[in-house]
Amino acid sequence: MHTPADSIERETSTHDQPGVLPVSQSREETRTFYDRISRVYDLLAERSEAPIRRQGLELLAALPGETVLEVGVGTGRCLASLARAVGPAGRVYGIDLSEGMLRRAKSCLEREGLAGRAALQCGDAACTPYADATMDAVFMSFTLELFDTPEIRDVLLECRRILRPEGRIVVVGMSKGDGDGPLLRIFQWTHRHFPGVMDCRPIYVRRAIEAAGFVVEQAIVTRMWIPVEIVLGRKPGGEEPA
Predict the structure, then answer these.
(1) pTM above 0.85?
(2) Which among 92, 95, 74, 190 has a CA at the least distance from the CA of 141?
(3) Disulfide engineering: 138 pairs with which of 93, 151, 169, 176, CB 3.0-4.6 Å?
(4) CATH no. for residue 214?
(5) What pLDDT is recorded for position 27?
(6) CB under 8 Å to 107, separation ≥6 — which residues?
(7) Residue 179: what pLDDT?
(8) Residue 160 in contact with residue 214, Cβ under 8 Å?
(9) Is residue 224 one of the residues assigned to a domain?
(10) Predicted pLDDT at 183
(11) In sequence order, which residues have a C-beta less than 8 Å from that of residue 209 and are 6 or more positions away?
(12) Could you give the number of structural domains in the chain?
């Protein structure tokens, strides 16, 4: 359990995420929350998130024959798009903490006739089962901001480890980097006081990707009802696994 003093230290200790609020939910609490809302998640979020997810997928531009991982597959809509993009010669992998979400993702892939191109895994994105330098690309949308501030870098380093040299990553995430408007303040207040309702919070997406050793090639700032960053990074060529 985090004490108030812990929260203050964690809020200010990571130099690439200044002022970003801590996450107080445990992994088990997060898992339980997403298991509970998995059946209605699309009704709650798809209308606002879907257009921005599509922008992220377009920026990643998965190619036929590639091997792609999605971190935080949710209900599987993006994973299905990736499976179509890589074609029958490619392969997609998906990891999520929630068994409920994975069941929804599996159903989505089966409906689309794409289950044979995908492998789903229940697990923690900070410690994945995938081998070093085995992925051409990694996609993550509205997931990185669920991790506590010190863990953000751990997740991105894990992504870098499993990417091949010159492999690319696209992260779509709620952004703290575009001012401090009233909606953003309300969002952060809700997260601080009601973390069981608002378990995520805005972060600095581009800064986090750069801090994990990726070269940022493109960064887009757009808006949902708060700012969102869509960032394309590339793992430097020829480096040893992180």
Answers:
(1) yes
(2) 74
(3) 169
(4) 3.40.50.150
(5) 86
(6) 76
(7) 59
(8) yes
(9) yes
(10) 66
(11) 156, 169, 171, 216, 231, 233
(12) 1
Edge-to-edge strands, sheet with 91-96: 118-122, 91-96, 67-71, 135-141, 163-174, 227-234, 215-223
Q: Which residues form the domain of 67?
A: 20-234
Distance (Å, whole) CA 158 – CA 138? 11
Task: Tell me the two tokens of residue 4.
Answer: 């108030």
Residue type at 39 in one-letter notation: R
Dihedral class, residue 52 (left if φ above 0, else alpha if ψ from -120 to 50, else beta): alpha
The pLDDT of residue 34 is 86
Q: Is residue 239 in some structural domain?
A: no
Q: What's residue 196's pLDDT?
A: 57
With respect to residue 6, please indicate whether it lies within any of the assigned structural domains: no
Report if residue 62 sits inside a domain.
yes
Name residue, tokens 């997810």.
53
Q: Are 108 and 82 in contact (CB under 8 A)?
A: no
pLDDT of residue 13: 40
Tell me the mean pLDDT per 10 residues along the chain, length 242. 38 65 84 88 81 97 98 96 98 97 96 97 96 98 93 97 98 82 65 59 94 97 90 86 48
